[in-house]
TrEMBL record:
The keyword Isomerase applies. Keywords: Isomerase, Lyase, Purine biosynthesis. Catalyzes the conversion of N5-carboxyaminoimidazole ribonucleotide (N5-CAIR) to 4-carboxy-5-aminoimidazole ribonucleotide (CAIR). SMART domains: AIRC. It holds the Pfam family AIRC. It comes from Nitratireductor rhodophyticola. It is an enzyme of class 5 (isomerase). This is N5-carboxyaminoimidazole ribonucleotide mutase.
Amino acid sequence: MAERSARVAIIMGSQSDWATMRHAADTLDQLGVEYEARIVSAHRTPERLYDFARNARDEGFQTIIAGAGGAAHLPGMTAAMTPLPVFGVPVESKALSGQDSLLSIVQMPAGIPVGTLAIGRAGAINAALLSAAVLALQDDSLADRLDAWRAEQTAQVADYPVD
Ligand code: RP5
């Protein structure tokens, strides 16, 4: 199978998750990390999930960011079918504010890990930063960009609050 240039896969259970997951994409853009975003639902498109997860490593992806809400099986099921690191982002749900998503993703049984992030935007951004940190272990240029990203963040914190 031909390798893709994208090193990170961003998958999500629904179009409605994109408002959250686009923050992961934006962060990877800022860091110059190529990614591919896809909709893959554990419940509505289980065969698409199987095909994606089984082939993700051969396609050239090195990490997977998986966002889902509600009964959020996508990150765990993906992790069950790939050796790649999977970072799970609990999407804020309407009914339970993402508590359901968080608990669905974080409580994996021993043996199949999902690195679970915070609910919503913060989790999406941090999943991208973690993916970049993993890739930076073997990419000095990316490591430099990640250091610069952090330095800029630090520089933007004012010493004193303003009214
Ligand atoms: C999950 O159900 C998705 O990840 C999404 O967060 C949630 C609601 O999906 P929609 O009904 O908005 O398509 O599978």
